[in-house]
Design goal:
By secondary structure, the protein is mostly helical. It contains three helices and no strands. Helix 1 packs antiparallel against helix 2. It starts with a helix and ends with a helix. 10% of the residues are buried.
């Protein structure tokens, strides 16, 4: 499982208008992982 701060960063960047692909590249994680984090309501 990803660290909480990475999950928070993914959600914050997405809210600011970054695409899932851009977020994945910036954080060095897979695009599918970004999608999974955004789909999870926690």
């Amino acid at each position: 499982m990803l660290e909480v701060y990475i999950q928070t960063t993914v959600k914050t960047l997405f809210e600011k208008g970054y695409s899932k692909t851009q977020i994945a590249r910036m954080l060095g994680i897979d695009r599918k992982t970004v999608r999974k984090v955004l789909k999870n309501p926690d």
